[in-house]
Task: structure prediction
Amino acid sequence: MSGYDPNKSKVSQTKMGEFLLADIEEDITSIPGIGQSSKALLKEVDIETSYQLFGQFLMLKAEGSTTQEHCDAFWFWLKEVGINSYRSGIIETIAEKLETFIPGIYVKEELTKAK
Result:
């Protein structure tokens, strides 16, 4: 079965650290894994800023869902949008960033695919 697997993230520790320490920028391409083609695909579903993409991630957090279920929901949503590359990295960076603001939103120990 496919879905979110943090082990498939291609975001380097350096890039992740820089992203986590930086302020959130409006430019959606400031999110590691989002390039011009992903930006265009997201625009087709009215997601034009990083704030909106963070909001979409949060909207997919169903009551009582585990971190794995939540991340899987976002992974499949990105797939539906047509984003076929860097999905796990996009999820990891957004989830890690939000974890700094909303503790408990991304509990790595709940990930069934994590080592």
The two ends are 17 Å apart (CA to CA).
